[in-house]
Amino acid sequence: QVDQILSEFRLREEDLKKVMYRMQKEMDRGLKLETHEEASVKMLPTYVRSTPEGSEVGDFLSLDLGGTNFRVMLVKVGEGEEGQWKVKTKHQMYSIPEDAMTGTAEMLFDYISECISDFLDKHQMKHKKLPLGFTFSFPVRHEDIDKGILLNWTKGFKASGAEGNNVVGLLRDAIKRRGDFEMDVVAMVNDTVATMISCYYEDHRCEVGMIVGTGCNACYMEEMHNVELVEGDEGRMCVNTEWGAFGASGELDEFLLEYDRVVDETSLNPGQQLYEKIIGGKYMGEIVRLVLLKLVDENLLFNGEASEKLKTRGTFETRFVSQIE
To answer: What pLDDT digit, counting tens, does each position of 32-49 carry?
Structure first.
């Protein structure tokens, strides 16, 4: 009986191919100007037109915001003994308080600015105006490499006053309000793009970046003539697929299990980011909790008795799944 309940999670090859073909169709629709708006997979241009060429040396500051933790990193890029790139990093993680995630944009970016200030103090770097790269792992419509409009929050973020605004502008304003350090924000990219570019240092054939973490997303290098949202046909551009939103037009309905539907209905954004909700780490613990409750209801676990904690949404964390495994 347990196997029967768990077997629902195993997709047959023909089902996987069905999902693949539907996603391919949505990706094509996302790239085309006339169908972009209604496509569930937005295929957002990043304005990253090339991979690293080897001239990038010096000290850089990197910010990474994409989940419940925020990371500040000092990156030193130099040339090694055999002409190879040599990259040294120092970083610190800061957890984001719930009130910053769900309060106002000003509160969130003031907190980010506070973390940067703390990091610079610890590394005696306050006197330096460093070039700063911002990895921002939410759906953004880029207008340039250092200008992007937040389309919508995902992964439990709800800070008001950010959607529809330039994210780099919000960061610059927060740094200015704080006033105890200066930064030159030179680029904002998605975490998938940052992954692809950093992997390129190891292997020059790398042209795809994929994240399976709190959420799930991918990017890749596309021929410019296929990127209809940006003028020009020459060269290539990295495209951020934002495939976590796949399923918004019903493409995944036949594959969603009862647990997936409960997770979606009780989320901050019902009906959105469905592909991400069946894959991303943010939701895995809750799916397992719902399966455990089903096993209890069927009298297959804990003698049919569920604890109050198991009955409470959000109590079974994804890290427990890893620990058990």
So the answer is: 999 999 999 999 999 998
